[in-house]
Design a protein that fits this description.
alpha+beta, 3 domains, two-stranded antiparallel sheet, 4 helices, 12% strand, elongated, disulfide bond
Length: 144
């Protein structure tokens, strides 16, 4: 545990100074250690984490980016519907060699439809008196 009365922060500082501990991964000068927190834990300031920070981007770059994004948004808002309609119209035209023509000539799924038709045999009583309809099932009519 360490000597009596010695805090965790003090032990860590001694380790960083090289007193009996293996050297840290990056050598940190003892002057860069932050003071102890109230809980007794040490926070160490790693210099390498902040070396690549150069400050905020120049205001010209921010303004140019904002203008480009604004113009791109306006262009998309104006022309989006016409672009989508143009692409759909181009793809839906039945012309030899197009994908839609191949699907139309040889459907990828064989269609199979059953249709049932119901005939109301007591239509006058149903419409005028509100009686229960009597239905006659016709079908199935099959399309394949």
């Amino acid at each position: 545990m360490g000597k009596a009365g010695e805090s965790l922060c003090e032990r860590n500082r001694k380790k960083n100074e090289g007193q009996g501990a293996r050297p840290p991964v990056r050598s940190i000068p003892p002057t860069k250690a932050l003071p102890c927190r109230p809980e007794g834990q040490c926070g160490v300031y790693f210099r390498h984490m902040h070396q690549s920070y150069t400050g905020p981007p120049p205001i010209g770059f921010v303004l140019a980016s904002a203008v480009v994004l604004l113009l791109a948004g306006i262009v998309c808002a104006i022309f989006f519907n016409s672009w989508v309609r143009l692409i759909i119209d181009h793809e839906l035209v039945l012309r030899p060699g197009s994908m839609t023509f191949e699907w139309w000539a040889r459907p990828p799924v064989r269609p199979f439809i059953k249709v049932y038709v119901y005939n109301v045999t007591n239509a006058d009583d149903f419409l005028n008196n509100g009686s229960k309809p009597i239905l006659d099932e016709l079908g199935p009519y099959v399309y394949s």
